[in-house]
Structures are given as structure tokens and as C-alpha cells.
Write a structure and sequence with these properties.
The protein has 153 residues and is mainly alpha-helical. It is 74% helix and 4% strand. α2 packs antiparallel against α3 and α2 packs parallel to α4. The longest helix is centred in the last third of the chain and has 45 residues. It is elongated.
């Protein structure tokens, strides 16, 4: 959906309908955040699968992942819309090229908080999960090598 909204964004913004542009910008923002949220959930799943291998039963795990994956971005979008729906709009007003228009976030502060900070938090979480998994794999490998040396002796 992110790709579909992104590819049709310029065409839809050429209609010069503010409501349509706000809707397209909201959808683009939502699906972008949802993609990063699901990436973060994949790293959490990776952690649970490789580090917390045993005794990790989470009741209704998929339902909880779906609520987080689709709900957290919806909360961010709702907060932005509650503050001011005019944060979304048409980015460029070039007369020579009507397809240079793009519906997106107009305020830099809102962009940095709701997109850049969000992606940065996902990046930090993924990095932490990745390092933890690497350390776990390294410790398992060293334990296996110690056991094999013990049995060789």
C-alpha cells in the first residue's frame, strides 16, 4: 500500500483538491510508519526466536503483533491530525510541471518528530535486538567449542 500511495501521490495532487491531498498525505504517512513498525516487530520476533527460545509462550501473539503493527502508526497519525490537519498538504506548487506536486507533511517539526524520530527509535530497537542476538549466538558457539574440547580430552 505504501508503494501504491507513493506512486499515485503526484497524480492525485494534480487535482488541486485539499481534502484529497490531505487524505493521500495521511495514507502515505500511515503506511510508511506501519512499514517501519512491522520491521521493528520482526526484530522483536527474531529476538524471541533466537534468544528466548524456550518458555516463550505469548497468548494471542499474532493478534498483539497486528494491534501493535497497525495501531501504533494510527495513534501517531491521529495525534498529528488532532493537533492540526493542515500539517498535511501539497508540497510544491510549480506551474511548469503539474506532476511535481506531492502531498506530504508541510511542517518540518512535525516531520522530524513523527517520521525521523520514529524511524530512529525503530533503528535503535533493531540495532539493540541485532547486537543481543549476535552476542547470544557468539556465546552459544563458544560454549559448544568448550564442550567439544572437553570431550576430545
Amino acid at each position: 500500500m505504501l508503494n501504491m500511495v507513493f506512486l499515485t501521490n503526484s497524480w492525485l495532487s494534480s487535482f488541486n483538491q485539499p481534502g484529497l491531498c490531505i487524505t493521500v498525505a495521511v495514507l502515505l504517512h500511515y503506511f510508511l510508519l506501519a512499514a517501519f513498525t512491522w520491521m521493528c516487530l520482526e526484530s522483536v520476533h527474531f529476538y524471541l526466536s533466537l534468544v528466548k527460545v524456550f518458555n516463550v509462550y505469548v497468548p494471542k501473539y499474532i493478534l498483539k503483533c497486528c494491534i501493535a503493527g497497525w495501531g501504533i502508526p494510527a495513534i501517531v497519525i491521529t495525534i498529528v491530525l488532532i493537533i492540526n490537519k493542515d500539517f498535511y498538504g501539497n508540497g510544491s506548487h510549480s506551474e511548469s510541471n503539474p506532476f511535481s506536486n506531492f502531498c506530504w507533511i508541510q511542517e518540518n517539526t512535525v516531520f522530524y518528530i513523527s517520521v525521523v524520530a520514529y524511524v530512529f527509535l525503530v533503528f535503535l530497537t533493531n540495532t539493540a535486538m541485532f547486537i543481543t542476538v549476535l552476542l547470544q549466538i557468539h556465546s552459544m558457539k563458544s560454549r559448544t567449542q568448550e564442550r567439544s574440547r572437553f570431550w576430545k580430552r
